[in-house]
């Protein structure tokens, strides 16, 4: 079945760039999303990319999509302590109105 | 800012009690979802609805039930709470824009003693 995979943890130094990776299996996905979850809170949509795009940039965030390899990445430039959170990758299903979620990557910021 | 609300935010209750977790959205979204999430862990879809009087079970089996009598309201009920129900419950809704982008409420953290 459809699956989305992410590494569970990423540790970076404050000021460095963070790159969070995600792989997915459904080649018919129309949209792919990155959500952020801070401790004790719900999920907040960070950014999304349509499947016919290769890259999308929004301030400090850059999303790269490699459809051939079914690989999605989120780059956060100049990582700050406020970026410490769990980042979820999700793909939309063309056949229904549901999202397939990754397990989330916990971003840890070292001073 | 997403207009989706959940109450209560925190609930500590004894075994055997009946509880209802409330979820409301003011965006007129037709699709609504309930997820169960243990702290720092992945999301599990337990219920969803594509409109009034439409409810379906999700991928994770749950003893809870839901109803959708009004578009804006999607409550989740546990008839008899057990310690195994201790978790965070997240409600989300989706309209027709940008695929199936989901907007999330703040969550209800449930502890059953």
Walk me through this protein's architecture.
The complex is a heterodimer of chains A (111) and B (113). With 111 residues, chain A is mainly beta. Chain A has no helices and 11 strands. Chain A has strands at 4-6, 9-13, 18-24, 31-37, 43-50, 55-58, 61-66, 71-76, 85-92, 99-101, 105-110. Chain A starts with a strand and ends with a strand. The mean pLDDT of chain A is 91. With 113 residues, chain B is mostly beta strands. Helix content of chain B is 0%, strand content 48%. Chain B has no helices and 11 strands. Chain B has strands at 4-7, 10-13, 19-25, 31-37, 44-51, 54-57, 65-66, 76-78, 87-94, 103-104, 108-112. Classes of the chains: A mainly beta (111), B mainly beta (113). The A-B interface holds A 30-31, 33, 35, 40-45, 48, 50, 86, 88, 92-93, 97-99, 101-104, 106 and B 6, 31, 33, 40-43, 45, 48, 50, 90, 92, 94, 98-107, 109.
Structural category of chain A? mainly beta
Number of helices of chain B: 0
Question: What is the radius of gyration of chain B?
Answer: 13 Å
Shape of chain B: globular
Q: Helices and strands of chain A, in N-to-C order? A: EEEEEEEEEEE
Helical content band of chain B: under 10%
Structural class of chain B: mainly beta
The total beta strand count of chain A reads 11
- Taking all residues together, what is the mean pLDDT of chain A? 91
DSSP strand (E) fraction of chain A? over 45%
Major β-sheet profile of chain A: 6 strands, mixed
Largest interface: A-B, 24 and 24 residues
Q: What is the end-to-end distance of chain A? A: 40 Å
